Amino acid sequence: MANKAVLIVDDEADIRELLVVTLSRMGIDADSAASVAEAREALERRAYDLALTDMRLPDGEGLEVLRHIAEHYGNTPVAVITAYGSTENAVAALKAGAFDYLAKPIKLDQLRPLVMSALKLPRHPHSRRAASGESANNGVPRLIGESAPIQRAREMIGRLARSQAPVYITGESGSGKEVAARMIHAGSSRADAPFVAVNCGAIPENLMESEFFGYRKGAFTGAETDRQGYLHAAQKGTLFLDEVGDLPLAMQVKLLRVIQEKKFRRLGDTEEEGIDIRIISATHRSLAEQVEAGEFRQDLFYRLNVIEMKMPSLREIPEDIPPMVSQVVERLARQNGVPPPVVAEDALLALRRYDFPGNVRELENILERALALCSDNTIREGDLYLTQATPREKVAATDGALGTRGLPLHDFLDQVEREAIMKALEATRFNKTAAAKLLGITFRSLRYRLDRLGID
Question: Is the pLDDT of residue 77 over 90?
């Protein structure tokens, strides 16, 4: 079997020589070019599995090489080499489709894993695996449906799987942000390494550093053994930071340093450990607004939000609800060891008309409850226990009542808040932690509101 081939594009002869020698020792064929023109000529002569290009070349920029390869040799990943501290160039390259970047002076312990990761990518980026997020491993989730927003999301996931760029996923609670992150990981060159999901809002602030970095025995009172943190657990793989906006400012500073230096140190340790991870973050709130409010560091935001992806809400894709229902009830029936139920037309119609403030997560909860309550193995509208009006209709009705009954403003707001909380509690089967997440508030805030409104 022929060796893998890499094209190196740099106008500095010593860098070209260093990279050629390093790759040759890895058993990889390496050709070099000193300009954009020479790179184009080399690409015409031979097919490459990876291109490494400097950003500044005598007759142009590395972005020209990147765009030329994307247009004519779309299966070939490109990594760019940037000047030290030139974050803007690196981000521009990643947004343009670069696989990853290296900063000068080039560190061989960072070059080698980058090259090996790029060479693991499938030669056909639009293969079924890359497009769907499926892999040889069982349990990889899929996006169900054929609506335009879902098809765009699948296409985006396929592209992101061929990159190492940090991804920031937005969308309402329960819209499938973690599903998208897992699909990106499963379709990437990191698929065989761990996917570590962290809910940033669920970690007490005083434990944040030890949970992320780990610690050595004796680092603090109660540290009776060595412990690895999330960063070490995600080594070579993907770290998914859910609700990243809940990170305290002090932890944001530490995370920024990890991203910049690609190193971290466990609590109580004297030496730093190199790290090779991809970070995917998500939130249902606007990080940009948090930056403006001084709640989130702007420099970290730019590091995390290199490529933004939005997951559609369920009410935007009502045509996808029937296939989602089929998939969910089949899975639930299999888990419970019962035959898949029939979902009656009136139930499907009611679900398509419903607003789903909790999105896919709420749909799953509704169907799980309906499966337990239905008779004759048939789910009917009455088994869903949906409210008679959608949330939008309820707001309009309440709004009208405000005008006709003249409710005082605080009573009106309490009424709306009580209905929203009860809805979230019912949707999560009265799991307060899940209900708080559904409402977009902290558990502590929910508990305060329950006490204030007298909800037991």
Answer: yes
The whole-number average pLDDT for the span 158-171 is 94
**SS3 breakdown of the chain: % helix, strand, coil, rounded to 5?**
50, 15, 35
| CA distances from residue 205 to 33, 135, 213, 234, 289 in whole angstroms, order as listed | 51, 36, 14, 21, 22
- How would residue 186 be classed by pLDDT, with cut points 50, 70 and 90? very high
Q: Are residues 360 and 250 in the same domain?
A: no
Interstrand relation of 167-170 and 195-199 (parallel, antiparallel or unpaired): unpaired
Backbone angles phi, psi at 33, to 5 degrees: -140, 150
Q: Which of 350, 384, 418 is the last residue of a domain?
A: 384
- Of these ranges, 18-22, 203-207, 282-286, 444-448, the one predicted with the greatest mean pLDDT is 18-22
**Angle of the 391-405 helix axis to the 409-427 helix axis, nearest 10:** 160
Instruction: State the residue range of the domain holding 289.
Output: 128-310
Spatial CA neighbour of 384 closest among 430, 361, 358, 351: 351
**Does residue 276 share a domain with residue 213?**
yes
pLDDT for residue 277 is more than 70: yes
Give DSSP secondary structure letters for 385-407.
---SS-HHHHHHHHHHHHHHH--
pTM for the full model?
0.78
